[in-house]
Design goal:
single chain; 263 residues; alpha/beta; seven-stranded parallel beta sheet; 14% strand
C-alpha cells in the first residue's frame, strides 16, 4: 500500500536549520517547514532580525528558535552546528539560504567584493553542509539538504546586470548540489537546490526599484514575480518523504523565465 499524501509531506518530529532565515526567502521556507510540523532553527547575522522572525513563526504555532552567526566564518558555522545539536539533538533538514550580491562591471570588479560573495554564497554552503553532514546526517544515515541557487546561475548576465560574482557563485551551487548528491546518496542524504527567479527581497530591492515589478513580471511566461507562497511547496517537497527519490536536482521557481532562456 502506498503512503497517504498527507503523511508524505508531514515533517512532524523533524528538525530543520535555515541559514539566512530571518527574512525573505529563508523565512518563507522556515514557515513552510514549520507549518508542516518541523522544529526550526534560524540563523543569520543580526539578533534583532532573528528575534522578530522567530516571534512571527511562534505566533503561527511553529516551534522556532534562533542563533546569531556570520555564515561566512568557519568558527561561526561550527558554533551554530554545536549549539543546534545541543538544543535540538540532530538535524534532519539543512537549508543553505544565506547569500550576498555585489554589482560592478567585470573589468572593475573589486577583489574584496568577489571574495565576500564567494565566501558567503559558496564556501559557507560547503562548510555548513560538511559540518551538519559529518556530525548529524551521516551518522544517522538520513538527511535532506536544500541549497538556494538562482536562475542567475543557469545563464549569463545581460549587459545591464553587472553581477559576475553572484552569477558565478550560484552556478557553483548548482554543481555543488549535483556533486554532493552523488557522493552522499549512500548515506540516504538527498541534496537538491531551488533556483528562484525574481522575488521581492532586500537583495533584489534595488532591481525592483530601478525596473519596477511590472517590467520584471513581463519577462516571465506567467507574467508575475514570486510572492510569499511560491517557494513553500517546492521546499517542502525536497524536505519531506514526498521527495525521497529526488536528489542532485535544481528546480527553477521563476514563473517560467528559465524555460524561455533554455528554449
Amino acid at each position: 500500500m502506498s503512503t497517504p499524501i498527507q503523511k508524505l509531506f508531514d515533517l512532524t518530529g523533524k528538525n530543520a536549520v535555515i541559514t539566512g532565515g530571518s527574512r525573505g526567502l529563508g523565512l518563507q521556507i522556515a514557515e513552510a517547514l514549520g507549518e508542516a510540523g518541523a522544529k526550526v532553527m534560524l540563523t543569520s547575522r543580526k539578533a534583532a532580525d532573528l528575534e522578530e522572525a522567530v516571534a512571527t513563526l511562534q505566533a503561527r504555532g511553529i516551534d522556532a528558535r534562533w542563533v546569531a552567526a556570520d555564515a561566512s566564518q568557519p568558527a561561526e558555522i561550527d558554533r551554530v552546528v554545536s549549539d543546534t545539536l545541543e538544543r535540538m539533538g540532530h538535524v534532519d533538514v539543512l537549508v543553505n539560504n544565506a547569500g550576498a550580491t555585489w554589482g560592478a562591471p567585470a573589468e572593475d570588479y573589486p577583489l574584496d567584493a568577489w571574495d565576500k560573495v564567494m565566501n558567503l554564497n559558496v564556501r559557507s554552503i560547503f562548510l555548513m553542509s560538511q559540518a551538519v553532514g559529518k556530525r548529524s546526517m551521516i551518522p544517522r544515515r538520513s538527511g535532506r539538504i536544500i541549497n538556494l541557487a538562482s536562475i542567475a546561475g543557469l545563464g549569463g548576465n545581460t549587459p545591464e546586470m553587472t553581477m559576475l560574482a553572484y552569477n558565478t557563485s550560484k552556478a557553483a551551487v548548482v554543481n555543488f548540489t549535483r556533486t554532493l548528491a552523488g557522493e552522499w546518496g549512500k548515506y540516504n542524504i538527498n541534496v537538491n537546490a531551488l533556483a528562484p527567479g525574481m522575488f521581492p527581497s532586500k537583495m533584489t530591492k534595488g532591481t525592483f526599484d530601478r525596473l519596477g515589478a511590472e517590467a520584471l513580471a513581463a519577462h516571465a511566461p506567467l507574467l508575475r514575480v514570486g510572492d510569499d507562497d511560491d517557494l513553500k511547496g517546492a521546499a517542502l517537497l525536497f524536505a519531506s518523504q514526498a521527495g525521497k527519490h529526488i536528489t542532485g536536482q535544481t528546480l527553477p521557481v521563476d514563473g517560467g523565465v528559465s524555460a524561455i532562456i533554455a528554449g
